[in-house]
Amino acid sequence: MRNRIIQLFTRAAVAYLRGEPDDRRAEVAANLVANAISLMRPHFQIAVTLGLGYFALVTALSGGRAEARLRAWLKARLPPQRDLSLFLLNLVIIAYFDDPETFRELDLSFNDYSRVERFYYT
Amino acid sequence: MTKIKIKMQKSKLRSKFLIIGSGAGGALSACYLAERGDDVLVLEEGPRFDAADAHANMAGTLADIWREGGAIPIQSNRRLVVAEGRVLGGSTMLNAGLFHRLPEDVAAAWARDHRIAAFSYDALTSCQKKIETALGVAPDPDANHPADRLLKDAAARIGLTGTDVPVAGTTDATGRRRKSNMRRTYLARAEAAGARIRTDSRARRIQFSGSRAASVETDDGTVVACEQLIVSAGALQTPLLLRRSGIAKNIGNTLAVHPTIRVAVRTREPSDAYRHAMSSYQIKGAAPGVTIGASVTTPGTLASVLTMHGFRQPELRDQMSRFALYYVSVKGAPRGHIRNLPGRGNYLVSYPIAPDELTALQKGYDAFVRGLTEAGATAVYPSLRALISIHMMASCPLGEDARAATDSFGLLRGADNVFIHDASILPESPGVNPQGPLMAVVLRCLKHNFPVQ
């Protein structure tokens, strides 16, 4: 159940980032988001899961337009809505901009990016 | 129905020196003690992670080496998150490797204000030189970093000068430059000298017998008996462990961080900053306690800032190569608190950012933008998401004054055999990246408490 809700969010976030849906990249991002949530402190896990559930509920009640709901949450006055959506969108960005296909579309060198990252992580 | 009771046998280990945590302080301690011939066991909460090249990036390592997925929320008067490592090697596995010495005036002020005995700049520098040699600390070879060139020009235009900070890194036989994290340096030496390392092993509680730590119990029920205990779990986890173990006096009441704002800067001409590792040039003096530098400019980190300003992939497609990422950070005072909460693994960290810190941050940012604009930047976009800090320290300060959690050499007050060897014992923020200063202070403590070479 939680994975389906996470996928709803990541599909919306990927569509928000690129201007069109992309299920493959949304799936990759969903895995990363699920991993990140599983690493949080227990009370944050509960809070994020509840927040995502609320996102799914409100999306369903407003006709299923998750991307429009995400846009609204990113500008929400309520800090929990805004902070949760910003945090999760940031995780989606990390996954999205680690994809060779994204680099090709942006006309950037994935090899150069990988060389720099290897300096830090190997 | 007969109930069958199965009692799990707790496994028991023993070591002369038990070190909890394998970051900069723990790895250094393990190496020196193991090379002295002592029996050393290191407990590390995170995994032993060797990134394959294909996964050597933030997305690939997020679940394995970053605590809580890379962003630990802090209760504050501003949105603030911190990041730290949870892996063999600690935060040295994910930082940039910039390596500062403790400034002489800061060392003198700490010795005076916190009444730290025998805290001489010369002794610290001697320790620092040893560590720099071991880590291959040297000037950054990427002196032609495009983000640095713009920053140097901007600094000159606002009447400031900066410094090229050395980087802990070595070049291997193939010419490949690699950061000197603890996994590749001090921990490798410690293991070669016979130290045992146990990963995926979180210390739950220290068990005391009178004023002596007798053993440490881990989450999986293992009990490790020890003669000497060195706690090096970092500025957040060390006070949490001590508090879980019933030690609370002056523990976790004085956390300091470096609140930092990230800034994406666009130039007229493409600079392809993402092709370069983090630059090492830093400016100081724009405002009290403020440091300005260029950050790692990956497309992902840039996008995380620019997306909040309305940039999507279509806009980024034409402009990504013209952006570089910078940071403006301010030295925070030791006023944060760290507390355990009910429930396993739950805790709360608070750090109220003081008005003078926010004012300094704003003044530094304004000066930075003015210099950049005069130097030819065409647009500046600050991160709207949150202030961040990857530097945490001072949560169990050393010294002889009323605020100190340990004596002048890291021995926990009220205990006979518990030492703190990580950024917790820095009495305040050093005003620079803390890895170099903390390692020098830890080596000084080691030399005093145990006769290491």
What does this structure look like?
Chain A has helices at 2-18, 23-38, 42-61, 66-74, 79-96, 100-105, 110-121. Chain A has 122 residues and is mainly alpha-helical. In chain A, helix 1 (2-18) packs across helix 4. Chain A is globular and about 45 Å long. By secondary structure, chain B is α+β, with helices and mostly antiparallel strands. In chain B, 28% of the residues lie in helices and 24% in strands. Chain B contains eleven helices and 23 strands. Chain B has helices at 24-35, 58-65, 104-113, 121-135, 146-157, 186-192, 234-244, 299-306, 313-319, 355-375, 435-449; strands at residues 12-20, 40-43, 72-74, 80-82, 137-138, 162-164, 167-171, 177-179, 196-198, 203-209, 212-218, 223-231, 256-257, 260-267, 281-284, 290-294, 323-330, 337-340, 347-350, 377-382, 387-389, 392-393, 418-420. Chain B starts with 11 loop residues before the first strand and ends with a helix. The mean pLDDT of chain B is 92.
Give the % helix of chain A.
over 70%
Average residue-wise pLDDT of chain A:
91
Q: How many strand units of chain B?
A: 23
Structural class of chain A: mainly alpha
Find the biggest chain interface.
Answer: A-B, 46 and 57 residues
- What proportion of the residues of chain B is helical, as a percent range? 25-40%
Supply database-style keywords:
heterodimer; A: 122 residues; mainly alpha; 7 helices; 80% helix; globular; B: 453 residues; alpha+beta; seven-stranded mixed sheet; six-stranded antiparallel sheet; 11 helices; 28% helix
Helix and strand topology:
The complex is a heterodimer of chains A (about 120) and B (about 450).
Chain A: H1 2-18, H2 23-38, H3 42-61, H4 66-74, H5 79-96, H6 100-105, H7 110-121
Chain B: E1 12-20, H1 24-35, E2 40-43, H2 58-65, E3 72-74, E4 80-82, H3 104-113, H4 121-135, E5 137-138, H5 146-157, E6 162-164, E7 167-171, E8 177-179, H6 186-192, E9 196-198, E10 203-209, E11 212-218, E12 223-231, H7 234-244, E13 256-257, E14 260-267, E15 281-284, E16 290-294, H8 299-306, H9 313-319, E17 323-330, E18 337-340, E19 347-350, H10 355-375, E20 377-382, E21 387-389, E22 392-393, E23 418-420, H11 435-449
Parallel strand pairs in B: 1-2, 1-12, 2-9, 4-21, 12-23
Antiparallel strand pairs in B: 3-4, 5-7, 6-15, 7-8, 10-11, 11-12, 13-22, 14-17, 14-20, 15-16, 16-17, 18-19
Helix pairs in contact in B: 1-6, 1-11, 4-11, 5-10
